[in-house]
Write the structure tokens for this entry.
Amino acid sequence: MEKLFLAYCRNRKTLGGKRSKSFLKPRNEAHTRELVKSSLQYLDWKPDSIITRASIYLDDGYPAKDPVTRNLNDLKNVIVLRNYIAHDSLEAKKKYTKFIQGEFTTSPIYEPYPGQFLRTSTRKNKKINYLEKYLKTIDTVLKEVFTG
């Protein structure tokens, strides 16, 4: 996402041929990153950050804002799962527990590990599991951002 976003901040075309319109006038990719990073310690690419950043630096947030916004809930769920897997923290555990409780219509007897949850069929489509759903979401968002 970072490379795409920085390219669009340099007014590059999407694969669909439409040119992004950036409010920045950077000299090169490194300068673009410096401008976007500004005083931040690092650039994070969480969904809310992408939406905010696209709104600030790209005219109408195009092409990043709309695909991320349309898939915001799924992308946030991926972050919750990722953080629970990556961080052994009380905060990550609490968010994961709340997320799991929201995904099941009844409280599970035990809280599934993330791998178990990802292998579970989704509520809306029993033919796919959550891993497939989330991978498809990520793929869809990136394709939409790539093609405009």
